[in-house]
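ok so for the tutorial part 2 we go from a plain amino acid sequence to predicted structure tokens. step 1 is just haveing the sequence, like this:
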Amino acid sequence: MNVVDLLMKLLSFESVTPDDAGSLAFIENYLEGYEAHHVNQEGVKNLFLTKKYADGPHLCFAGHVDVVPAGEGWDSNPFTPVIKEETIYGRGAQDMKSGVAAFVQALHDVDNFKGRLSVLLTSDEEGDAKYGTVVMLEHLKQIDLLPDYCIVAEPTCELIFGDAIKIGRRGSINGTLTLKGKQGHAAYPQKAINPIHQIAPLLDKIAGVYLDNGDDDFAPSQIVITDIRSGMEVTNVSPGSLKMMFNVRNSTKTTQEEIKLHFDRCFEGLEYELSLSQSAYPFVTGRDSLVVKKLVESILKVTKQQTKFSTAGGTSDARFIAAYGVDVVEFGVKNDTIHAPNERTTVQEVEGLYEVFRDMIIHFNAELSV
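step 2 — the prediction. this is what the tokens look like for a chain of 370 residues:
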């Protein structure tokens, strides 16, 4: 079986979160000779496969086998993958069974390594992610098997395969602001306190505003308003309160406390309540990390691309891995059809990703002493 055959097999599993649909058992059997650890909780299956070749660094490949529901609008059965003109169609083709196939096949084809190799897989990345990678990491900590380095094979490339890797991710802070006024008749505005009128002159201080200047790794943290609602959908009553929701994808330069202080300044003298919650924390892996340097070298060798470093996009399970002090980086196929009808990747990209991972393992093998 080659990497494309393996991907076609993985795409045939209808593994909608949190159901792995048997794909994890298949991978466990395929990587014969690897020691298996299972941690299953609340209907979520997690699999860790590891093999120690020698004393040396522990390099792990991580990902998820679960996919989002197929939805409507497909030209073919989303769980019966097809190849048309060197393009592979199927739910999960980009996100992220191509990545899983690439590193599983690379590990399958490797027969030597100066250290330990492993695979961490979950069926709960596209869901709440409460019982997936984070649960397995806690188990690995308890048994002293946390990796030194990790590659998460999420789709990262933008225009050309090999053009981007993610060396970190922004955090995500969600906010809800309730501005209190006084309800009244629209014909007597002087007798009411209209929160819509109160917030209107303040919007230019919050909507789309940058909270920091960013740096070499992160774009500036920006307030993105996602919802504003007020009133009773009538024309003769001014509202008594207003609710606004927003999100900040934050860099390491902006915290919840700094966001709170910004709103305190903007809404000084007004009656309001602000609630903030952090669903993900920002992290970055240094560009001089061994896993970053070796990955960049392999990408250049295989694709001839000078890859760029990115921290853009949403969140991934890499945030959980980084929290344990593991140097983690993300690299996968092009990201342009994930979660969409007719999700697809190309044979060339999948084969290229396999070659990058295989070459990188060899780089570690060649460069490091036992």
